[in-house]
Amino acid sequence: MARYIFITGGVVSSLGKGLAAASLGALLQARGYTVRLRKLDPYLNIDPGTMSPYQHGEVYVTDDGAETDLDLGHYERFTGRPAVREDNITTGRIYQDIIAKERRGDYLGATVQVIPHVTNAIKDFVLSGNDGVDFVLVEIGGTVGDIEGLPFFEAIRQLGNDLPRGHALFIHLTLLPYIPSAGELKTKPTQHSVKELRSIGIQPHILLCRTDREIPREERRKLGLFCNVRESAVIEARDVASIYDAPRAYHATGLDQEVLSAFGIEPAPKPDMGRWNAVMERIRNPEGEVTIAIVGKYTGLKDAYKSLIEALAHGGIANRVRVRIDWIESEIFEGCDPASHLEHVHGILVPGGFGQRGAEGKILAARFARERRVPYFGICFGMQMAVIEAMRSLGGVPEANSTEFGPTREPVVGLMTEWMRENELQIRAAEGDLGGTMRLGAYRALLSPGSKIAGIYGATEISERHRHRYEVNAAYRDRLLDKGLVFAGFSPDGLLPETIELEDHPWFIGVQFHPELKSRPFEPHPLFASFIAAALEQSRLV
Ligand code: GLN
After folding, report:
1. CA gyration radius for the chain?
2. Which residues are CTP-binding (predicted)?
3. Rounded to an integer, what distance in angstroms lies between the CA atom of residue 178 and that of residue 137?
4. Which H or E run includes 13?
């Protein structure tokens, strides 16, 4: 039977609960165990799909088409295990199910209440589908004390008793702030956070203490005493320069050892850290550096591009170079010559995006890359903008545009209302709901033999994750015949363009999908590895 590890947070948000969970998952894997990571999100949205990237950061899409929390991206990158829809749940989804059941009459006669109905639904979710898994790591979003988190904390408290003895472990992540005027790391916020947790019936077994310096023995002792944990279970979680060093750092402080001994697993199987040592050896010893411009719209919040930043770093790992990112708000190009911002970069990436704001700037960035022969990677929206640019400049369609921005005479990019998912027709109404209705998840695409992209993948059939509502209109394809822009990849039914490439260009590729979602540090995605290799070539020219 699976063992359960519940990871909660306190004091402040953004301490890296997701990374801590992902790192612990990786460490248990390194000791030969199978793991599954899941996230409970207390907000009321059904999923983060309709939230602004400014609110929530990136929406991470799974193979099975769920729009989920970005922590699932960490889980996947650290463990290599593809996340699935059922790895993430929100209060909204729990209530949606309960209310549907209530209307159906499933609870006939009963008053439907938070305890036990909501808590039971949460417990059923946590316990479901874990056959064959040694450790299930469950991260609870938000921090202890949040009103909306209470049913989740209550549910995991109950699970502590429902599960057989020795099958549940509670880990609490907190912050030890350093106060310069006192010259001390302060333990009081952690003490209060644990007190809050204990007041709702949860006694943590292990404390992860985020700190920018070593925790002195005395503070460690104090934390153990006041928070009622063993001194060896006060784990120092020091800042690390690269997130990929977190598993090794946690291992060095004894986290995985402490977890296994708390479960009574002794002696613990020896860990094999080879994969992480190899990744860190490359990150620590780059042989060069390239600069990539990300021309986007949410550049103020880097979390909006989490997987993209990581996939670029993985491309760097594959080529033994450090990847520096120049963040450029695309709107600034609407009124200035892009050259002044792009002349020095070695590659230009236009990522996924939504809406008209900044679109013309992205089109100008694509033009600059095409004309100046700078490596260009257009992802989803970035491919759509590159096609509009080519239609306007090369295809003789000066009014080329996307219907995403309003009615247009030349809908080179248009709304999709019907498409195939394997053998099943998907239909959407133009005025339908926005939540969960895009073309989402893994779809196969066929690449033309001999195309550049087929060469990069070393395959002519691929499967990648999608998240889009608009699509390049294949009817315009002929306008670009003999103009050098090739539609190299299509959906299996031949209707939806999936990739484009410029023939006479060092590296100009657009993809309708999101390859960044499947890249891993120890398995960099071929497109990112190839793009960074091209940028490295470019860096030798400029
Ligand atoms: N807004 C575009 C669409 O819906 C692109 C989406 C994206 O880049 N993920 O098709």
Report:
1. 25
2. 13, 146-148, 186-191, 222
3. 30
4. none
Strand 168-175 to strand 178-179: parallel, antiparallel, or no bridges (unpaired)?
A: unpaired
Q: What are the residue numbers of the active site? A: 380, 514, 516
Does 13 appear as a known binding residue? yes
Top pLDDT among 521 and 419 is at 521
Dist CA 360 CA 336 (whole Å): 12
Q: Specify the 3-state DSSP secondary structure of 155.
A: helix
SS3 letters across 443-494: EEEEECCCCHHHHHHCCCEEEEEEEECEEECHHHHHHHCCCCEEEEEECCCC
Amino acid symbol at 469:
R
Residue with the smallest CA separation from ligand 1 atom 5 is 381
Whole-number percent of the chain with pLDDT over 70: 100
Q: What is the DSSP string of 158-209?
A: HHHHHSPTTSEEEEEEEE--EETTTTEE--HHHHHHHHHHHHTT---SEEEE
Atom of ligand 1 nearest to the CA of 380: 8
Burial of residue 2 (number of CB atoms within 10 Å: 0-12, 13-18, 19+): middle
Residue pair 462/447 in contact (Cβ under 8 Å)? The answer is: yes
The C-alpha atoms of residue 499 and residue 496 are separated, in whole angstroms, by: 9
β 234-238/184-185 pair status: unpaired
pLDDT in tens, 262-295: 999 988 899 999 999 999 999 999 999 999 999 9
> How does the average pLDDT of the chain come out, rounded?
94
**CA 401 / ligand 1 centre spacing (Å):** 14
Torsion sign over Cα 422, 427, 431, 437: negative
Please name each of the domains of the chain with its CATH number. Answer: 3-279 (3.40.50.300), 287-413+472-539 (3.40.50.880)
**pTM (predicted TM-score):** 0.94
Tokens matching residue 165: 């003895």
pLDDT, tens digit (0-9, with 9 covering 90-100), for 424-483: 888 888 888 888 889 999 999 999 999 999 999 999 999 999 999 999 999 998 888 889
14 burial via Cβ count (<10 Å: 0-12, 13-18, 19+): exposed
Convert the pLDDT of each residue in 242-268 to its tens digit.
999 999 999 999 999 999 999 999 888
Helices vs strands, H then E, count in the chain: 17, 25
Nearest C-alpha to atom 9 of ligand 1 is from which residue? 352
Ligand 1, pocket residues at CB < 6 Å:
352-354, 380-381, 404, 467-470
- Cα separation of 37 and 76, whole Å? 9
